[in-house]
Amino acid sequence: MAKPQKRYVCQACGSVSHRWAGQCADCSEWNTLVEEASAVVTPFQAKHDLRTGGRSFELVGLDADIVLPERMATGIAELDRALGGGFVEGSATLIGGDPGIGKSTLLLQAAAKLALAGKSVAYVSGEEATDQVRLRARRLGIGHAPVQLAAATSTRDILTTLSMGPPPALLVIDSIQTMHSDLIEGAPGTVSQVRASSQELIRFAKERGTALVLVGHVTKDGSIAGPRVLEHMVDTVLAFEGERSHQYRILRAIKNRFGGTDEIGVFAMQSEGLAEVSNPSALFLTQRDEGVTGTTVFPALEGTRPVLVEIQALVVRLASGATPRRAVVGWDSGRLAMILAVLEARCGLSFSNAEVYLNIAGGYRVQDPAADMAVAAALVSALSERPVAIDAVAFGEVALSGEIRPVAHGALRLKEAGKLGFERALVPAAVAKEESTLRMTGFRTLGEFVDHMLGR
């Protein structure tokens, strides 16, 4: 009889190796290779022709009539926005976030709202007892919701129980790292167990039309733990971001087969649970009556949603010979170094003997390249101690040549700024030609923008 071949799977990236090593050759992580027994390969199986003996299926064209999938609105508008309108029947959703960020609280609130709306909901916890979940529900004021609770970690037991009656409309598994399948060996949380348990649960959801939600742990760098293939198996991946020291949480859609990506939902953690924030721009702006040096308001864009955030900069002059420090919170440090280099090379400003600190207010993280011009405005304001007008916003992408390039959805950014009471906009020259209620000043190069701020 042929011997089973051993293989070693990296728990960080999912790559397979036939020999154990201390460091993964693909992702360079240490001590992540775990032994996993593969299927027995016989000479007959190796030589068998897969082109015969199977079941034929029908091929259809792209122009075939289809029915759009129905969505279940949870009643939580911010969650529905991130999902693209609600949960889809037969879909699998993976939500990840740091411990204590509010994943279980949000899903329990969504499950309660769906149950009160007449949907059958099952909530299976592998980390807490049912009494703990009931106590949290009472604290949140949803203890009367008809949600079916269970504390189990065996995938076979869960599927056997759910198959005995009508399938639930929503099934929440908290968390997938605690589930265990007896079909393969290994402790819960390993690559093979997470993959096998997820595959069986997703198969049940697809066959019975149940909307499945899997809660996933995250690693120390913020990515979802377990094999990378888990994110490919599900239909939607949501990331719950935010600092536990801050009140606000951001639910971001990273992948969505039934809607757009990069949509966000904003929540505020309160004593009665997570509350929706319908106007997130007001959260990230500092209320002030006079201008402050080193601050600029930037209209960021998350999917189709504009969010106004405040960019803060501080420039501290050092004695000659000291090594200056660059500290960034909420933005890319490499992008800051590029903006400083363009300001020095193209605009004649000197930051070589100064420490530079940049912060995005409210714990928000900005990935929009349109923030270049707003960051440059904050840096110039902090260096020259000239405040930017409190009723002005700035956005635009800065090239290495010093050119200010237009960005997407300029009209949408300007409209959001106008709704919040801003009257002026510092924008690229191409955007200044668009119609808007704001008074716009356009700039072709960063040098023109610096001259405007310094009154040259």
Automatic annotation (TrEMBL):
<feature type="region of interest" description="Lon-protease-like">
    <location>
        <begin position="355"/>
        <end position="456"/>
    </location>
</feature>
<dbReference type="Pfam" id="PF13541">
    <property type="entry name" value="ChlI"/>
</dbReference>
<dbReference type="GO" id="GO:0005829">
    <property type="term" value="C:cytosol"/>
</dbReference>
<dbReference type="InterPro" id="IPR004504">
    <property type="entry name" value="DNA_repair_RadA"/>
</dbReference>
<keyword id="KW-0862">Zinc</keyword>
<keyword id="KW-0479">Metal-binding</keyword>
<dbReference type="InterPro" id="IPR020588">
    <property type="entry name" value="RecA_ATP-bd"/>
</dbReference>
<keyword id="KW-0067">ATP-binding</keyword>
<dbReference type="GO" id="GO:0000725">
    <property type="term" value="P:recombinational repair"/>
</dbReference>
<feature type="short sequence motif" description="RadA KNRFG motif">
    <location>
        <begin position="255"/>
        <end position="259"/>
    </location>
</feature>
<dbReference type="InterPro" id="IPR041166">
    <property type="entry name" value="Rubredoxin_2"/>
</dbReference>
<keyword id="KW-0234">DNA repair</keyword>
<protein>
    <recommendedName>
        <fullName>DNA repair protein RadA</fullName>
    </recommendedName>
</protein>
<dbReference type="InterPro" id="IPR020568">
    <property type="entry name" value="Ribosomal_Su5_D2-typ_SF"/>
</dbReference>
<dbReference type="GO" id="GO:0003684">
    <property type="term" value="F:damaged DNA binding"/>
</dbReference>
<feature type="binding site">
    <location>
        <begin position="97"/>
        <end position="104"/>
    </location>
    <ligand>
        <name>ATP</name>
    </ligand>
</feature>
<dbReference type="GO" id="GO:0008270">
    <property type="term" value="F:zinc ion binding"/>
</dbReference>
<dbReference type="Pfam" id="PF13481">
    <property type="entry name" value="AAA_25"/>
</dbReference>
<feature type="domain" description="RecA family profile 1">
    <location>
        <begin position="68"/>
        <end position="218"/>
    </location>
</feature>
<comment type="similarity">
    <text>Belongs to the RecA family. RadA subfamily.</text>
</comment>
<keyword id="KW-0227">DNA damage</keyword>
<dbReference type="Pfam" id="PF18073">
    <property type="entry name" value="Zn_ribbon_LapB"/>
</dbReference>
<dbReference type="GO" id="GO:0016787">
    <property type="term" value="F:hydrolase activity"/>
</dbReference>
<keyword id="KW-0238">DNA-binding</keyword>
<comment type="function">
    <text>Plays a role in repairing double-strand DNA breaks, probably involving stabilizing or processing branched DNA or blocked replication forks.</text>
</comment>
<keyword id="KW-0863">Zinc-finger</keyword>
<dbReference type="InterPro" id="IPR014721">
    <property type="entry name" value="Ribsml_uS5_D2-typ_fold_subgr"/>
</dbReference>
<dbReference type="InterPro" id="IPR027417">
    <property type="entry name" value="P-loop_NTPase"/>
</dbReference>
<dbReference type="GO" id="GO:0140664">
    <property type="term" value="F:ATP-dependent DNA damage sensor activity"/>
</dbReference>
<comment type="function">
    <text>DNA-dependent ATPase involved in processing of recombination intermediates, plays a role in repairing DNA breaks. Stimulates the branch migration of RecA-mediated strand transfer reactions, allowing the 3' invading strand to extend heteroduplex DNA faster. Binds ssDNA in the presence of ADP but not other nucleotides, has ATPase activity that is stimulated by ssDNA and various branched DNA structures, but inhibited by SSB. Does not have RecA's homology-searching function.</text>
</comment>
<keyword id="KW-0346">Stress response</keyword>
<dbReference type="InterPro" id="IPR003593">
    <property type="entry name" value="AAA+_ATPase"/>
</dbReference>
<keyword id="KW-0547">Nucleotide-binding</keyword>
<dbReference type="GO" id="GO:0005524">
    <property type="term" value="F:ATP binding"/>
</dbReference>
<keyword id="KW-0378">Hydrolase</keyword>
